[in-house]
Amino acid sequence: MSEAAIASSGVDSGARRRATAALLWATDTVAASLLAADLAVVIYSVLARSLFTAPVEWADDVARGLMVASAFFGAASALARGENPGVVFFHSLLPEAWQDAVDDVGAALVLVVAAYVAFHAIELGWITSGQTTGAGLPLQLTFYPMGLGAACMTAFAAEILLERNWQRILRAVIILAAISGVFLLGDTFVPDAMPSSGMLMLLGFVITLAGGLPIGFALALAALIFVWAEGSLPGVIFAQQMARGIDNFVLLAIPFFILVGYLMEANGMSVRLIELLQHLVGRMRGGLNVVMVSAMVLFSGISGSKMADVAAVGAVLIPASRKSGQNPGSSVALLAASAVMAETIPPCINLIILGFVANLSIGGLFAAGLLPAALMAAALIAVSIFFGKPSSAVPPVLVERAAMGRMWLGAGVSLGLIAMIFIGFKSGFATATEISAFASLYAIVVGSLMFRELTPAAAWRSFVHAAARSGLVLFIVAAAQSLAFVLTLQQVPHAMGEFMVGLSQQSGTWLFMLLSILILIVMGSVLEGAAALIIFGPLLVPVASKLGIAPLHYGVVLVIAMGIGLFAPPLGLGLYGACLIGKVPVEQTVRPMLGYLGLLFVCLLIIAFVPAISTLLPKLMGY
Amino acid sequence: ATGLAAPVLIGRAEAAVLKLKLSSSQANDPKFANGRVYYDNLVKQIAASNLAGQIEVAFFPDNQLGQEIDVINSVKLGVIDMMVSGSSIAANLVPVVGTYDLGYLFSSFPQQTKAFDAGAAAPIEQALLKGSNIRIIAWAYNFGSRSVLARKAVNNPDDLAGLKIRTLPNPVITECLRLMGAAATPMAFGEIYAALQAGVLDGLEHDPPTIVASKFFETAKFYSLTQHNFSPLAIYCSENTLNRMPTATREAFTDITRKAAADTRAHGLAVEKEALVQLKDKGVTVIDCDREAFRKRVLPQSDAFVKARPEAKPVVDLIRATSV
Ligand code: NA
Ligand code: NA
């Protein structure tokens, strides 16, 4: 998303890149193969249990282990391709000469963090040898593959650093050595005047984040600064928290639903759905915008990856709106606003993550998110129609008569996937997490049998992309968990919880609600969404239940607020992503985006203060 | 986010007070959660002792410091000082601890205490200390024995045949349920409720307070008192932490942790009874099933275990020889 953050050194990368091209091929292959194996394990386990009443006892442990390994190899691939998101806004305000220095130091820090993870993951595997998982499998099987993936990541990080000339590398090393030297001197001679480990951590985090260090690495580095400054915590604890941050069965839904998104694009389902929508509503007033919002609703109902949805819908509809003479900036803004709206349409990665960290029912959260999303979709569609151009200005969509039947069939099959996700779970066949594997299977089978568009090569590419993308997401989740662990050790959540309860008991629950929204908008903007939920979810949700707010309702509010932050200028990374896809400079989207965000914010206030919108469906469905 | 700055400001300098971290995987519930009840008792005992003001215990419920397998590894390394949990988690480190998970090994919690006092705990404690540097400084009771909650009435092994029963992801307990006749289905705790509701599962095995606290009775209405497992509750302490204490402090502290554990036992037995009454009130049929039939089927498990791990034989023999 922000290649600028790590790869903007302006150095030609060709020659040295070839040296690690083979390694990149290897990490891609390993990550995708592990993901495919994971899919096979989950599907086999569900079939054995449902059809033959023969539950597979090792399935849970093996599926999680494969996911952790796939995530670290995938994250290595993502780093090699410069896909790691970082905050570019503050960085872009610096003078050019400074930007280079900051980039160089950032590249060195990425190398340090990756190497630290690799070393201690392997050490942890060694320490835990002889121990077993719940099902009795060797425990170190989780940590050695993670260490290998992180070692590949280290190699890529070294390559990125070494692309610079030696003067710049030396300068970065000197800067880091100077900072460490000042700390060591101070700690030795004036220990009483030194800031606490917690304060150092906070400082390091703010500075590296503003400097554009990729989010995952900034989070991990913050935890590491605490570990280093504290001196008493062994490095393996950091690796342990990284691994266990993602070693959970419910998180499997993330790679699988991301995979569905890529498969859907590769097998032609995406195009068929958009064609159908254009045929149905494309010619009404503001038609193209209505198509865009409805397409985001449908796509969100199928895949779990918001950026995949934005990419799929944007790739088709932004050029179409350019052709029809619309302002591309406002089209991209609407696309981004629709992504915020779709934040709570199941399946949704952020609801899964929140349910995981805050101990909420994921099925319940899915149900709770539907009506709030409907409210926001209705608001966006109403605005699209109200401010839209009359139909005559929009070129008619060309659909040949012969293609019509094919389109309906294709769309029907695609919608079948949504139906399967809902019915499959309700019927007792599989859990919500397991259904995500069957959604992938459906996309593969339907793609190859019905549409005959999904070639083996295209399917394989989908696995490679999904493994890298989910590796990226899960690496950030893992890093955020390691930071959350360090905060918990310092009892920060405890203190903050008491502070919030005290404040709300004085002024009322409404203040707590508003504060929560504010925190999640700001932190969602700074921390790329998921990380904000991981750190603040477990901290705020118990306070909310203490104040009598229904946890599912509150969870939905948090996720929407985070979504608004993620797409809010000037920091929101989601907005930068949408602009990259729509090929529009961010500045052109700011004005229309503020309008849409205002609208969504009003919707969020309604959702926050009318709990029934979120709690009605979960109640009806028995959560 | 203003609250964030305050606790972060606490200095790095080691304070004079010894600060210990106590972890529990259970919720922060002062009545039904064994971790919190133990913590409350421990705080009371410290306050009443001559260690008051010298030792402070910070409580981390709800898996805040990580999943149990990670926490116990952290106890091993001395990063986390204490942990309250069943004995089964330590079997992942030192397999012979799994002895206590064997089906129908104990017949009641008081019988367990009698057997432990007679020497059935020492070999296991020593094995864990030697193998992983963790000392079990006190034993208490889990809040109730484990029995089967199902969507249909289970009176005997035939009724249980083929039912998909969620078990702890623990090979010994899984095997016990399989011998009892069930299709043992290990599953993450967080997925149980929805899976029961949707029919992915036919039931689960757990103690009454957990079933009340997690509302599993809302979808499964028959609780068969199979009582196949009376797993003890262990108070784990890092040997590194204990070694940091001066001898006098260590002895006083060990004494206190034992007293707090003893206080927890009566509470555990009372809460089990109360939870059973609550289950009945919620419309659950509590079935006094044919335990003897289940016990006979599970008997070979202990024999096979002892054959594979001869070091468990004296422990099993001692427990079997102890009657209430
Ligand atoms: Na979605
Ligand atoms: Na989506």
Automatic annotation (TrEMBL), chain A:
Superkingdom: Bacteria
Primary site of residence: membrane
Membrane topology: Multi-pass membrane protein
PANTHER family associated with the record: SIALIC ACID TRAP TRANSPORTER PERMEASE PROTEIN SIAT-RELATED, TRAP TRANSPORTER LARGE PERMEASE PROTEIN
Record's GO cellular component terms: plasma membrane
Lineage of producing organism: Bacteria, Pseudomonadati, Pseudomonadota, Alphaproteobacteria, Hyphomicrobiales
Domain Tripartite ATP-independent periplasmic transporters DctQ component: 40-163
Ranges of residues in domain TRAP C4-dicarboxylate transport system permease DctM subunit: 203-613
Keyword vocabulary terms for this entry: Cell inner membrane, Cell membrane, Membrane, Transmembrane, Transmembrane helix, Transport
Protein known as: TRAP transporter, DctM subunit
Cellular compartment(s): Cell inner membrane
Function noted in UniProt: Part of the tripartite ATP-independent periplasmic (TRAP) transport system.
